[in-house]
Specification:
With 210 residues, the chain is α/β, with parallel strands linked by helices. Helix content is 50%, strand content 14%. It is built from 10 helices and 6 strands; from the N terminus they run βαβαβαβαβαβααααα. The chain has helices spanning 11-21, 36-46, 62-72, 87-96, 108-119, 127-133, 147-157, 162-169, 173-187, 192-201; strands at residues 2-7, 27-33, 50-53, 77-82, 100-103, 124-125. The protein has a 6-stranded parallel beta sheet with strand order 2-1-3-4-5-6, with helices on both faces. Helix 3 links the parallel strand 3 and strand 4 (77-82). The longest helix has 15 residues, at 173-187. 37% of the residues are buried. The mean pLDDT is 88.
C-alpha cells in the first residue's frame, strides 16, 4: 500500500486529489496539509511513502520544505504537482530533492502513473516539461564518462534498477554499483532526482522518457 500525504493550500484541490486517489487500488491518502510547517509535522507523525507537494505555499515555499520533509520522513519520496511550469522551477525542485515533477494541468491517468513510478523508486518529470530542460549543447557535460557509464546513466535515468541494468548489459549488480558510484562522483551528483535532471538537461533521455 502506497501511503500518500497531500500538501496544498487549496482545500478544493486537496479534496479532488484525495477523491481521485481513493479510487485507486494500492494507494491510501493518510493525511492532508495546507502549509509547509504542517506538512513537516504530519510527515513526521504519519511517515508516508510519498508526498504530493505544491510549490506555492504560504510563508514557506515547497522548494524550501523538501529538505525538511526528507529529515523527518527519510523514506518518503516527493512528487511536486505545481502550476509552475518554468524550467527553473523544475530544476529547483529536483535539486532540493524532489523525485518527480508534474504540472497541475496533467490528466488523472498521468497523475496516478507518476505516483506509482515515484513510489516505486523511479524519477519522473512530465515529458513536456522535460523537453524544456534539454540543452542541445549539453553533450560536453558527458565527456568525463566512458561509453559503458553513459549506457548505465541512460538506464538509471529511465528508472531501471541496478538488477535490471545488470541483466540488460550482461554484467553483475556489483559492477553496476561500481559504475553508478563513478558516474555520481564524476558528475558531482548525490541523488537519483539529480541524475534524472542531469539526463534530461543533457539529452541523455528524450522528452518522452518516464
Amino acid at each position: 500500500m502506497i501511503k500518500v500525504l497531500i500538501v496544498d493550500d487549496h482545500e478544493l484541490l486537496r479534496a479532488g486529489l484525495r477523491s481521485r486517489l481513493e479510487r485507486e487500488p494500492g494507494i491510501a491518502v493518510v493525511g492532508e496539509a495546507d502549509t509547509a510547517e504542517r506538512a513537516v509535522l504530519m510527515a513526521r507523525r504519519l511517515q508516508p511513502d510519498l508526498i504530493v507537494l505544491d510549490l506555492l505555499l504560504p510563508r514557506k515555499s515547497g522548494d524550501d520544505v523538501i529538505p525538511d520533509l526528507a529529515n523527518v520522513a527519510p523514506q518518503a519520496r516527493v512528487l511536486v504537482v505545481s502550476s509552475q511550469a518554468a524550467p527553473s522551477s523544475v530544476r529547483r525542485a529536483l535539486s532540493a530533492g524532489a523525485a518527480g515533477y508534474l504540472p497541475k494541468r496533467s490528466s488523472d491517468r498521468d497523475f496516478v502513473a507518476a505516483i506509482r513510478l515515484v513510489a516505486d523508486g523511479a524519477g519522473y518529470v512530465d515529458p513536456e516539461l522535460g523537453a524544456k530542460l534539454v540543452n542541445p549543447n549539453g553533450s560536453a557535460a558527458l565527456e568525463p564518462l566512458s561509453e559503458r557509464e553513459r549506457d548505465i546513466l541512460h538506464l538509471l535515468a529511465l528508472g531501471y534498477t541496478n538488477q535490471e541494468i545488470g541483466k540488460k548489459l550482461f554484467i553483475s549488480v556489483r559492477t553496476v554499483d561500481t559504475h553508478r558510484a563513478h558516474i555520481m562522483r564524476k558528475l558531482q551528483l548525490e541523488t537519483r532526482a539529480e541524475l534524472v535532471m542531469f539526463a534530461l538537461a543533457n539529452g541523455v533521455i528524450g522528452s518522452d522518457a518516464g
